[in-house]
Amino acid sequence: MTEKVKKKNGIDMLNGPLAKKLVMFALPIFASSSLQQLFNSADVAVAGRFARDGALAAVGSNSVLVGLFVNLFVGLSVGANVVISQLIGQQNTKEVKPVVQTSMLFSLICGIFSAVVGIVLSRPLLELIDTPADVLDRAVMYLRIYCIGMPFIIPYNYGAAILRSIGDTKRPMFCLIGSGVLNVCLNLLLVIVFKMDVAGVAVATVVSNIFSSIVVIIILCRETSVIRLDLKQLRIEGRSLKRILRIGAPAALQSAVFSLSNICLQSAINSFGSDAVGGMTAALNFEMFGYFIVSAFSQSAVTFIGQNYGACKYDRCKKIMRLCLLESVVGMIVLCGIFIAGSSFLIKIYTVKPLEIEFAMVRIMYILPFLFITASYEITGSALRGMGRSAIPAVITVVGVVLFRVIWVYLIFPHFGSLLSLLIVYPISWVITGGMMLGYYAIAKKGIYFPHNYSEA
């Protein structure tokens, strides 16, 4: 990595104080994720305020399915981030190029595959989660149009992961600023002016995602450092793909199974009717903004620890983990406190229907105060992945979050049947998973710092 890249677009992760650098790295990621969520927020707000009745529920019914498609493949981008970061830390720059070329071509293949699957299975999947009949047709339309954009959505996320491996989190953010503005403008134009209802919301999202994907690919093609993308040399290099999958596959599986647990929860929420779906969708936006803080510091942990682990700076890895955990918890408590204090006003951005507002307020008051607990397993799991251990954190998350939630939905929730008895599964599962992840890290940390010839079983 050249000195020019370090100064202009990257961060020196191997030397100097860490606290400020972690914040400076995480802030653009948080802003980028927030902008992506603003795509969805714009969809929700326009659908709830300007489209026909039921539009908000039609869009909201798709949130867990969209998360499943995206998270399954985007989880693999963690592998590219870790592999490139470790190679840079080892100063083994010759092997970075095939990883970059392999990652981007693989992301395109994943995008095309997920688009086809999503379009074909959209109705059966929405019926499987008991989407209310009065919004089913429009929900199917939204999902099918959204899936058309998958060959662009997934490559963008891989491109952003590659840029993060050298410490560049600002340029992906700038991509999304332009994309976000485009999305909002198209939403208003297509829904209010052209009366396209749910279809207009979906088309606006797809077009904005195409824009951000094209821009990030152009950035990579013009990059002068070791992560430069050469479209003429795109190919799948077997060794590089294997290294990416060793780290990324467990993370992808975790994300996918995590999404499946949310699908089970969405099915239970759907049983309360379209007003509950609309209200839960509106409230979910605030949770996502809070979660983006822990997600940003999780990605900071992966990248910083990846480089320092590659450079054998093991004590620095431990310090990075502690700082990311502390800074993410503080940030989440502050932001969620603001949302709770202003919830009665903020919720009206998304819906003005009294019943939807009532459902949304219940979720806000019972979920947001405990959201900071997610940092306990997200940051710790990311720290372990940065050092090459991806399988065990995935297993812990699947057991603590996914399995527990599925058991709760099908065995415990039916005995009570209230919305509160459903929502309480979130904080309980966070506590269980966080306790297991921190316990594993405490046991493993003395033996986890070892030479690079380690290969996880």
Short synopsis of the structure:
Helices cover 78% and strands 0% of the residues. It has 457 residues and is mostly helical.
- How many H/I helical runs? 19
Enumerate the spans where pLDDT stays under 50 for 5 or more consecutive residues: 1-7, 450-457
Task: Assign an overall shape.
Answer: globular
SS-based structural class?
mainly alpha
Calculate the terminal CA-CA distance, rounded to whole Å: 31 Å
What Rg do the Cα atoms give?
21 Å
Number of strands: 0
Can you give keywords for this protein?
457 residues, mainly alpha
Notes on the protein architecture:
This protein is an all-alpha fold. The protein contains 19 helices and no strands. α2 packs antiparallel against α10. The longest helix has 37 residues. It starts with a helix and ends in a 13-residue tail after the last helix. The N terminus and C terminus are likely disordered.
What's the arrangement of secondary structure elements?
Elements: H1 3-8, H2 19-49, H3 55-60, H4 63-74, H5 77-89, H6 96-128, H7 136-148, H8 150-164, H9 170-193, H10 197-222, H11 238-270, H12 274-310, H13 314-341, H14 343-346, H15 354-367, H16 375-386, H17 391-416, H18 419-423, H19 425-444
Helix pairs in contact: 2-9, 2-10, 2-12, 4-6, 4-11, 5-6, 5-8, 5-11, 5-12, 6-7, 6-8, 6-11, 7-10, 8-10, 9-10, 11-17, 12-13, 12-15, 12-16, 13-16, 16-17, 16-19, 17-19
